[in-house]
Amino acid sequence: MARHPHPSSTVGRVPGPPRRRAVGGCFPPVRIDVRHPDQVA
User: Fold this and answer.
1) What is the C-alpha to C-alpha distance for residues 27 and 10, in angstroms, rounded to an integer?
2) What is the full per-residue pLDDT of the chain (41 aa) written as tens digits?
3) Which of 35, 38, 40, 41 is nearest to 17 (CA)?
4) CB atoms within 10 A of CB 37
C-alpha cells in the first residue's frame, strides 16, 4: 500500500464495499444480485 502513491487506487477500493452495504440496507439483497448496479457503473 505504501508503494501506491495514487490516492485514486485507495479511493476506488473504499467506495466499493461501503456502497454495497448501504444499498443492501436500503434495498433488498435480491435486487443487488440481479441488477448489480455497482458492477454496471
Assistant:
1) 26
2) 556 555 555 555 555 555 555 555 555 555 555 555 565 54
3) 38
4) 12
